[in-house]
Fold each of these.
Amino acid sequence: MIARVWYGYTEPASADEYEAFVTEEVLPDAESGIEGCLGGEVLRRSLDGEVEFVTVIRFADYDAVRAFAGEEYESAHVPAAARELLSRWEEDVAHYEVV
């Protein structure tokens, strides 16, 4: 199993809307639409003047990761709707083998 870990940040005023977008649209769409997507979690914490989100999505293998993010799967996959809500994000994504 592969865990895909990514960081994004919002202004406090956009945090609830971004959280809803990820938990109500991105994760359910990935879980139902991508074979090998095994679910995920969204972690949230307030920092100095911004809100940090850590998204962890589990996949059966790298083929499922590619189905989600494309061939350049080590780069962030940030939909247009998320870009409108995020103030900044990590350009790279980390992948871990779940042990």
Note: The longest helix spans residues 15-33.
Amino acid sequence: MRNRTKKAAMLAGVALPAMMWAGALTHQAQAAESVTQEGNAYLALMNEMGGNPADFNIDDGKKLWKEKRGPKNATMEQCNLGLGPGVLKGAYAQLPRYFADTGKVQDLESRLITCMETLQGFTEQQAEHDAFAKESGNATPLVNMAMYVAHESDGMKIDIPQNTPEEKLAYENGKKLFFYRGGPFSFSCATCHSEKGKRIKISALPDLVDSGPNGARVSYATWPAYPNSQGVARTLEWRMLACFRQQRFPMPKMTSNAVIDLITYMGVNSNGATLHTPSFKR
């Protein structure tokens, strides 16, 4: 009898801390879910209210588009973004895509740089100079034009092509990069973005592997955006470079194949989603 009592006490001594630990985990999970819901509600409210500060960037980009600039004193109005010279409506919804004149798959920024070179006479270095403003700084002409062009596809369905071998290769390379682990902490894009229920601070981390309405589409379809924490309009190129930095990877060059391939991977996974840009983010 005494041995059974002792054994029961020992089991109770193990079971009670285990129950407390399990209860603590449940409480933490509930608290995390509550914070995520509050964060989502905050962002939804800000997007519903309207008056996004990035509206000023769109206006500035529209003026720059029609302004004669560069050594050739020309506008950007004949820029071919994939649907023909000067066609903006729906162009961003189909980028990145392959361009025969450059022999490359290009995203929005890289294609704008090509147009600034060929139409206006800027060098590549001049076109992308200080492309990403400091926090709370003023967006550059390249970003302002990107905001304007992207907004011309607002409300349209994402339809990024996979017709050429180059486009298919960009997608496959982007997928490999997404899951590639490296750096001092063996991180990958998938570390944060391949499971549901993860978050950073109040922001839910989208599952970019999931091509459903609550996965990649949630994130991709809302860029370019105005992140309140940055105090300046940002594009997907910036977001990709920021992710590399957060993984402690070497920073890739702007408009590099690595960045464009990752954007292609996420974009194709988002096909069919409706663009809402610019959006307001944390």
Note: The first strand starts at residue 97 and ends at 99.
Amino acid sequence: MDDLFFIASKIAWGLLSPGNLLILLFAAGTIALLLKKIVLAKWILLPTSCIALALTAYPISDALMVPLEKRFAKPAELPKHIDGIILLGGGEDLKRSLSWHTQELGYGGDRYAATLKLARRYPQAPVIFTGGSGLMQLQPESRDQSEGHLSSTLLTDMGIAKTRLIIEAKSRNTYENFKNIKSLLPKKDGQYLLVTSAFHMPRSVGIARKRGIGVIPYPVDYYSNRSPYRQWDFDFYDHLRILESAWKEWIGLSVYFFSGKTSQWFPSPLNHKKHQPSEAS
């Protein structure tokens, strides 16, 4: 069932990706013109062009991203004791790392900087990495090609002792992240700092709670700009990148909720200070 969910999600995203949709609509409009279906071409190309122009000129994608990134904030005061630091994979650039035989970070590289900072603050806490390839056409054949091996190398190169690392390298999505690490946690009812991108935190927290894992959100890697810094800048690539991530995350929240992988559609911060899971699986 997990394999079917993984494959279906990749196929669906190929069709629902905003960038892919824009290309498909422009192609459909062009085909309509070539077939001299002028009215149909207008109905397709005019709204598509307006959307593309608006997305180019102004960061309208922030409207989808900001609610995700505002949902959880870093703790106002870090706890005196934690049982570990959970680092979700996604900050690595596996394809380019394998291509060039080096360790490359991607857009989520801030996850590693934050993990290093927390590892220094809590020198006795284990660092628990969970992640694997989320690409259908790049499932590593050996340990040396895995995201886990890449992460282990990055973390040790940054100065974190290998003896502190717990590496889980088979998960392909966020649901599998928490499913796979539960049995690896040093303390089953412990308290763990969770490091991932801010827009990804609501879904991650929802899954952790559903699996009975107590996490304290530590969001990093912000994509959007708050209103004072939002400008007309004609940066289509950056605006589309933010839209892709935000749109994918809202779809993920909905799919995970309706498939029973989380118990809340849009998980919210706990009201009490002690961060405990809301339910165990």
Note: The radius of gyration is 21 Å.
Amino acid sequence: MARRPSQDPSDEHGVRSALRDPVGPKDRSVYLRRRLIVLLGLVAVVAAIVLIIVRPGSSSGSSTSNTVELPSDVAAKPDADKAKAGAPAACAAGSLEVVAVTDQGSYGDGELPQLSLSVENTGSEECVADLGTAGMSFTVSSGSDDVWRSTDCQVDAESLPVVLKAGEKLTTESIPWDRTRSSTETCEISRDPVVAGGASYHLAAAVGGVASEETAQFLLY
């Protein structure tokens, strides 16, 4: 019978030690747990980086809020810049010059004076003036007596906003004066004619809240 080779006691101890603390391939569950721990660590690092780069209110991320905060230098722009982008402002009284106009200096028997006015923007910027009949008036006077006013029996008055460029001058269409005395009580009746025979009359005009500084004088024959 063949004899089994004798084993050195140290070899036996080494075998037993190797069995107690194996150095060979680990169990599969051990590797899976380790990989899972590593992956979770990577996910945490990536999440931290994303939170730093894309944070609430950052321009790099999208926001579901309807509120948008403008930079202070944009929000603080003066209203003057906004006005320049829109329609011109209303004409100031000091930037308009109104002149009363008649087509002649004297009128013979039967001739009707044609009354009109001119308005000029004397300012340095364009502006809007209401040149409609709602803000326009003509007054014929003799001395201190206002014998006729265009607004006494006016109907269907309308507003007409007009943009006037700097230095621009416009003249309205003329209206005839029937050489009679008017009042708010004479709109539906025949009015008496005014005195002629070389009598002197003066025309004053107003539009856009501005009255003519001087009157236009004319004679009636």
Note: The CA atoms of residues 109 and 124 lie 45 Å apart.
